[in-house]
Amino acid sequence: MSWKKIDGILTQLAVGRDNNVWGINFKDEIFQYTGQTWRNIEGLAVNVGVGADGTVWVVNRFDQIFAWNGIGWTNVPGALVQISVGDKSQVWGVNRADNVFYRTNGDVLNGTWVQVPGLLINVSVASDGTVWGVSRNRDIFKWNGKDWIQIGGKLKQIYTSSESSVVGIGINNNVLQYKDGQWLQYKDIILENVAISIDNNLWGIDSMEEIYMFQPNSTTSPLTPTSTSPTTSSTVTINPGYPAGAIIGLSVGLGLALIICGATILFIIRRYKKTKFPEVSGFSEVVRQ
Fold this sequence. Notes:
This protein has helices spanning 244-274, 283-288; strands spanning 2-9, 12-15, 21-24, 29-33, 38-44, 47-50, 56-59, 65-68, 73-76, 82-87, 90-94, 99-103, 113-119, 122-125, 131-134, 139-143, 148-162, 165-170, 174-179, 182-190, 193-196, 202-205, 210-215, 223-225, 233-236. The chain has 289 residues and is mainly beta. The protein folds into two domains: 2-236, 7 Propeller (Methylamine Dehydrogenase, Chain H); 244-288. The strands form five sheets. Strands 14, 15, 16, 17, 18, 19, 20, 24 and 25 form a nine-stranded antiparallel β-sheet that branches. Strands 1-23-22-21 form a four-stranded antiparallel β-sheet, with no helix packed on it. The chain crosses the membrane at residues 242-269.
């Protein structure tokens, strides 16, 4: 099995079924892979998600959300910095505050965003409803429908296309795949971004923004156990964060307290300077002696 270099330069990509690959380059330009070359799609984005049914959503540099309608982009209310698509009914994302959301009904115009407890910087959803995520301190989580289950290991990025297809980028940029309760490492490849399709086509981007596709050419497994295998799982509550209003209120309160304290000290100093203290008898005599 080997990695085949694909012509082109990208910074992030996502893949649906049958190598339906979409990507973003360093200029925020959007591209779709045709099987031979990359077709430029109108618009600008920083992150793209592709579903198994061909559904495509993107977010741009201003956190605006758009869904591809086949001929153009439909603006969707909301604000996200990263988005993931399993299919038209499975769309998840995270915002600039690391809050996690999913789209109800998958409806572009009439759907709504529902917030899920917890803070993540990267979330990935599959068409079967499988959801994985990575927190800011690189911990790995899997959604069970109501809670986040922490999975052993550390990742920079994660991508899932089904319950059995989960890949990620490790701390040292090694490519990992989750199988049978443990993380296995792909040999001889270092990447910055990785994606796997529902039919197990693996794509990635390295530090030079070069694109690779994994091609099987033998029966030898390309995977080896990592030092974190096997992993353990536990149900945890991801830090929900603090409401912005509470933080602002606390800051204002502390500021007012400091101002009052400073004014009080200044008043005491001024009174001290104006006060004429009586001479202590005997002091001058002691000095003269």
